[in-house]
Design a protein that fits this description.
The chain is α/β, with parallel strands linked by helices. The protein has six helices and eleven strands. Strands 1, 2, 3, 4, 5, 8, 9, 10 and 11 form a nine-stranded mixed β-sheet that branches. Strands 6-7 form a two-stranded antiparallel ribbon. A hairpin with a 2-residue loop joins strand 2 and strand 3. The chain is globular and about 50 Å long. About 15% of the residues have low confidence.
Length: about 290
């Protein structure tokens, strides 16, 4: 049985892009699809952002008074659209555009452990759609975070970085993923946007990413979790069904942060549903809890 956890969103995560670039030091990295070995001597027309690459580093974080040594990996995996299985054999070699593909950027943190396969692994992504996962990465759960004001607007740059006492790395390895077309992730090929920008298309890309990541890092036997925020919770509902139903990848849990599984219940734009009072009723407990906290 999948365990679903709903959490309050208590972090102000609106100003972190510059700091993320500083920490990752990957703004100059390029990622691109592997060219056919038989054409190694020819100039490839494949975008340079699609060569599969990664950069490794090491660090430490203190969580709950305990020091954790870890390896950080910034890299990318290339995934294809839903109809990819039917495309290669039918593709026109003279076509100007190759089949749709997405280069999905990630930053993974692996705690040093004698038995890596025994450690849980959690795939984390923000909502949007169109938003990179910098907010959860540098604002909430990564081993380093941007220092922000608790209950007031944080001043402009430069932003300070600090050890994240509330990182999840003490309990699980972490994989922060940028959706296709967001952050450092890129989309290319014929009808690339159509192939990845949609509810089912988005979930398919993430399912392909999860499967590829588990194989690349030999983590099939690890306890596996999905952690989505905002629209990422909607994605998780579709993704977990796809992973378990089509891919045969059983998940150990799904974590929902600032969930929105029913858009009719959203308080952000109740005027589009005149006469429906449910958004106000559902928001009252959250507003009360927020007022009590402050």
């Amino acid at each position: 049985m999948i365990q679903v956890i709903s959490l309050f969103e208590i972090y102000g995560l609106r100003l972190l892009t510059t700091a993320c670039l500083t920490v990752l030091s990957v703004s100059s990295m390029t990622f691109a699809a592997d060219a056919d070995k038989s054409d190694a001597g020819k100039k490839s027309d494949v975008p340079k952002e699609f060569v599969v690459e990664q950069a490794n580093s090491k660090g430490t974080v203190t969580v709950g008074g305990k020091r954790i040594d870890y390896e950080a990996v910034a890299g990318n995996l290339v995934v294809h659209g839903k109809d990819w299985d039917d495309t290669p054999q039918n593709a026109d070699p003279e076509a100007k555009q190759s089949p749709a593909a997405a280069s999905m950027f990630y930053v993974a943190y692996f705690a040093n452990s004698k038995s890596k396969s025994a450690r849980p692994i959690t795939f984390i992504y923000n909502g949007g759609p169109g938003s990179a996962t910098v907010w959860l990465h540098m604002g909430a759960f990564g081993p380093r975070h941007v220092v922000t004001s608790n209950d007031s607007h944080t001043p402009a740059a430069p932003y300070a970085l600090a050890n994240n006492d509330y990182s999840l790395l003490d309990s699980t390895d972490l994989v922060f993923i940028d959706a296709p077309g967001a952050g450092f992730s890129r989309v290319t090929g014929k009808d690339g946007e159509k192939a990845f920008y949609g509810v089912d298309e988005d979930a398919h890309a993430f399912a392909e990413f999860v499967r590829g990541f588990l194989s690349k890092y030999s983590r099939w036997n690890s306890p596996k979790y999905l952690f989505g925020e905002s629209y990422g919770t909607t994605r998780s509902a579709v993704l977990v069904n796809l992973l378990q139903g089509r891919y045969g990848i059983d998940m150990n849990g799904v974590i929902l942060l600032s969930q929105i599984l029913m858009f009719d219940g959203s308080p952000d734009g109740p005027e589009v549903n005149p006469g429906v009072n449910l958004p106000y009723q559902l928001s009252l407990p959250t507003y009360a809890a927020t007022a009590w906290y402050h």
